[in-house]
What we know:
It contains nine helices and nine strands. By secondary structure, the protein is α+β, with helices and mostly antiparallel strands. The termini are far apart.
Amino acid sequence: MIWRNLRRTGYTLMVAISSFVTNPLLKKQPDYDPVKDFTPIAIVASVPYVLVASPGLPVANAEELIKAAKAAPGTLTYGSSGTGSPQHLFAEMLNNMAGTKITEIPYKGGSQFMPDLLAGRISLSWFSSVIAMPYLVDKRLRALAVSTRDRLDSLPDVPPLAQAGVPGFHAEQFTAIIGPPGMPPAVVERLQSEIIRLVNTPDLQAKFRAQGAEPRPGTAAELSTLLKNEVALWGRVIKETGIPLQ
């Protein structure tokens, strides 16, 4: 019923992911402001990432990685899907916070650099937990840390990077629902409550987790705060690391 009413009133909703925030931050002339130009409705889920190393890299954990990176600046490499990708931003955030210089090797997509990572032609990268898991189970890759504040249920022995040599590190990809500017509060509240109700159902939560996402139902106010925090975080990382604007 709610979706039928929305169609009659002409509203268009959008599923926003983290690139919704980072894309305009990477442009000299942004097309939009992710905070001011939209109406936040609800947070849906988050996607944790895992820092993984080639099995031939002689480090067993994040502390050893940082030590090795500092001993030979620029020698270790990481694969990314290009400027602004999660691998790029997470790795440059690590470089910035840990004082390391791990060199980016950009590719056109994760599927292209995975063979090089498995073969040891690049040293490490970041992957969502669901993508990383098969390679970790059969020991073709080694997990060094997770990007979240807490350990993951699927990788209980892998510490957060914040507890493994980089205090304060926290990064993950979010999924949320946003709408056009100026939506009536009553409509936002109704949408928010319905989305949160759906995200809290066991069936939908199981589907999210099967895709490597953690259900994270949140209100419009919480999404507003999240967007502001993400703009501040990645704006600072982009500025401090000198990532060139497009």
